[in-house]
Amino acid sequence: MTPRRDPAALLAALLGPGVPELGCDACFDELDRYVEAELTGGDADALVPGMRAHLAGCPACREEHAALHALAGGGEPR
What we know:
Blueprint: H1 7-15, H2 24-40, H3 44-47, H4 51-57, H5 59-71
Helix pairs in contact: 2-5, 4-5
């Protein structure tokens, strides 16, 4: 038996973030600048618009973000 998923989470996954987001190629191109801004207290979301929305919906890029964040000494990303 498979567990039931939250209907709101399913709807959000189907509809997407509702804001502009980057594609994977642009995400990988900008990820180092984004993480650096996060770690130095800069406004990472203003520096790379659409990154947060992309990371929320892309497991591969989210994993890369977490790895880069940890490698740079920032621990787990927020």
